[in-house]
Amino acid sequence: xxxxxxxxxxxxxxxxxxxxxxxxxxxxxxxxxxxxxxxxxxxxxxxxxxxxxxxxxxxxxxxxxxxxxxxxxxxxxxxxxxxxxxxxxxxxxxxxxxxxxxxxxxxxxxxxxxxxxxxxxxxxxxxxxxxxxxxxxxxxxxxxxxxxxxxxxxxxxxxxxxxxxxxxxxxxxxxxxxxxxxxxxxxxxxxxxxxxxxxxxxxxxxxxxxxxxxxxxxxxxxxxxxxxxxxxxxx
Length: 235
Prior knowledge:
By secondary structure, the chain is of the alpha+beta class. The protein has seven helices and nine strands; from the N terminus they run βββββαααβαβαβαβα. It folds into two domains: 80 residues, YlxR-like (Hypothetical Cytosolic Protein, Chain: A), CATH 3.30.1230; 114 residues, CATH 3.30.1330.30. The protein starts with a strand and ends in a 37-residue tail after the last helix.
């Protein structure tokens, strides 16, 4: 797995845990959360608040100039908002793909039935989901996995049911469940970056671990890596 260095903190992490900033032909900087834009780019592994503070102090521009070997750089004032919007879109698109592939289910009854059968790998709730509904489904999840007392509750998303429903093309999408371990990892890879960047932390990202699957991205602090790891500043 390739590793990159955050141009703000200097910390090294796997690239999938960071956000790439792409350099345009005119020297403009734009977010590239999928890491696929052509040309040169640099990486950040900080929250939106930290990014905007670094931008105000000139630390971001200095870090980008050093990493990209480019002195004429134009950073949009709303870079943080643009990154957040892209991270949200990437996560919702991922949920949509899992929905179409059949690994995502919604609806209280369907989720409760699957949870009690031990089929749920990740439980998600809209930000405006009722506490009673969240607790009921979480209990069913714990019972189905013989995990009573674990405290597993699922994850409250940073968007409400209206946004979820529109993204998934489903009516009243309040609670969601992922029924495949690898699909849960794919969702968390996007969701953990989004949560970290926005500072959203309602409930732990509890999931039913697959012993054969790799740890989901974001379970370690974004922007950190073992000492002595070599990585590129830009790519």
